[in-house]
Amino acid sequence: MSVGSSDSDEEFQSYSERTLAIIKPEAYEDTEAIENHIKNHGFSILAKREVRLTPEQAAELYRGHYGRQHFPHLVAQMSSGPIVALVLAARNCIQKWRNLMGPARVAEAQAYWPDSLRACYGRRTKYGDYFNALHGSKEHAEALREIHFFFPNMIVGPLLRHMQINDYIQKHLAPTLGPGLAALARERPAEPILWLAQYLHRNNPNEPEMGPPSHEIRDDYRCHTPVPSEI
Questions:
Q1: What's the whole-model pTM score?
Q2: Where is mean pLDDT largest: 34-38, 180-184, 222-226?
């Protein structure tokens, strides 16, 4: 193993971690300022989507809060106006984003973490501290579910570091692509891209092996009674 690839899986995962961030309706007008704050603190914004949730969608998103006293208020709040969903990436992204947001209770954030985003953009009302401006996933499994809630086709996996790209190419691409390019150079087909695509399809090492067609299976094998096991 090369020196550049000696990091543990845990360290690599923390480097490439992702989380979902939501700018809630009460902070929607401050989206630009919040996004700039996010970027200035070392996060990359990989995806962004503006949407207005229905009460049913909000209830599904926060299904982990079902049965709690604040659940109806939370659903009403999240479906009261447009929101912005962001996929963030950074080292230790989940915890780093939660630290930047500050405590869930706006009163606590303003008293003890005055520089946090919730202290700056959250609102205290007579109904409680439900209007805390921002949301962040609590842990990796929740981040995966919430990211796919807004971005169902997004691949959420480790981001390759620069020093690992060559290792990935040598291990996963070169064994098939190298011979294909060599054959392409020998054949010199009229449509090289189509030819190479067909070659890679025929020689895909991940293609599952197919069993014989059903008509080739002998009847006596299909109806064979196995030898009874001994008691």
A1: 0.64
A2: 34-38
Instruction: Give the pLDDT band (50/70/90) at residue 54.
Output: very high
Catalytic residue among 70, 73, 135, 201: 135
Pairing of strands 128-131, 123-125: antiparallel
* Alpha helices, H only, the chain: 9-15, 31-40, 55-61, 71-78, 93-101, 106-112, 117-121, 140-150, 162-168, 174-187, 192-202, 219-222
135 is catalytic: yes
Burial of 105 (0-12, 13-18, 19+ CB in 10 A): middle
CA geometry: angle 128, 144, 87, nearest 5 deg: 75
pLDDT above 80 (res 72): yes
pLDDT at residue 3 in the model: 36
Q: Is the dihedral of CA 188, 192, 198, 199 positive or negative?
A: positive
CA–centroid distance for 186 within its chain: 42
